[in-house]
Amino acid sequence: MQRKFNPVPAEGDNNLFTQSWFAVALSEEIQSGKILGRKFLDGKIILLRDEQGHVQAFSGYCVHLGTDLSNGEVVSGNVRCPLHHWVYDTQGQCVATGCGDKAPPTAKLFQFPTTERYGIIWVFNGETPLWEIENFSKAYRDEELIVRARKDKRTYPVDPWVIRSNTPDWQHLAFVHHMKMDVDIRDRFQFEPYGLRVQIPVGLEEGSGQQLEYNIRVSGTSLWTTAGRLSGKWHLQVSALGIEVPGTSTHYYSHAVHRGDGSDAAERQARELIDELEFLFEKVLDEDLAVMTGMHYRPGLLTASDGVLATYLDYVRRFPRAHPSREFIR
């Protein structure tokens, strides 16, 4: 007897990755005048801030001999290779060589689209983003928020799209996280070309009395956000996944709450709310990691209650895939 399953392409299959925004660093890690190297997809990139403070992301190896540019220097906002002092400008173009030879016109690093929000840095797998990371805190301006961003200490042994499948796999909320839903939410999921949305009212573990209102958006194959209320108090949560090594996910997350009237008491209450949100969020992460460790994610015999999950898996199967930086980051 042969097991039947309908596979979803893994990240890196056929040298391709989904064209999504992937989290690569915390904002606080990118310091002015410094270069940060990070593993990304199946290679390495570098991150730095230009003279205006905007984060730039480039392929991590000099196109001359392949020197690791994370060991280089920032000189007048440009990247200088540590070996032969080839200099790359803010578009990744080589504009000078240490020996004085004219830089070859094709000497150029791969430049990734980059964005920074809620204390997290994202890069897009592609030359031009297919979609943008929007402002999720529409209820308040950024300056009205207190934001706390962190890098998860856990490494997840699955691709990002597997973790994001937990949202359309709505049954797991009850069985893994012990959440209570009084309504059938299957008809509440709205799929879009590059994401999905759903509104979910849930109660936490029975007897706790805490209620969550989730207005969730899954964007691409890596980003999860919700703006909602915990027992009536507004908050924003961001869960952003990255790929440092194919077959694994790194995780960055942030919480944002309204700072209130600006008083010390209001700020203290806001930070206490973030503490509570982080505690609940990290509890969910621990519960998910316990299930995903050792998991071989192979969609097999689905039932009627898996209808939303099946739609999501088809969405991932159809998702655009590419790897234009392949020859630059390895």
Give the tags.
four-stranded antiparallel beta sheet, Rieske Iron-sulfur Protein, 2 domains, seven-stranded antiparallel beta sheet, single chain, 5 helices, 20 strands, alpha+beta
Description:
With 330 residues, this protein is an alpha+beta fold. The protein folds into two domains: 18-124, Rieske [2Fe-2S] iron-sulphur domain (Rieske Iron-sulfur Protein, 3-layer Sandwich), CATH 2.102.10.10; 142-318, Naphthalene 1,2-dioxygenase Alpha Subunit, Chain A, domain 1 (Alpha-Beta Complex), CATH 3.90.380. It is built from five helices and 20 strands. A seven-stranded antiparallel sheet has the order 13-19-18-17-16-15-14, covered by helices on one side. A hairpin with a 3-residue loop joins strand 16 and strand 17. The model has no long low-confidence stretch (mean pLDDT 91).
- List the helices and strands in order: EEEEEEEEEEEEEHHEEEEEEHHEH
From the alpha carbons, calculate the radius of gyration and give it in angstroms. Answer: 22 Å
Q: Give the termini separation.
A: 42 Å
Q: Indicate the percent of residues in helices.
A: 10-25%
Helix/strand layout:
Blueprint: E1 17-18, E2 21-26, E3 36-40, E4 43-49, E5 55-59, E6 73-75, E7 78-80, E8 87-88, E9 94-96, E10 111-112, E11 114-117, E12 120-124, E13 145-151, H1 160-164, H2 171-175, E14 190-192, E15 195-203, E16 211-219, E17 223-230, E18 233-242, E19 250-258, H3 264-292, H4 307-318, E20 321-322, H5 326-329
Antiparallel strand pairs: 1-20, 2-12, 3-4, 4-5, 5-10, 6-7, 7-8, 8-9, 11-12, 13-19, 14-15, 15-16, 16-17, 17-18, 18-19
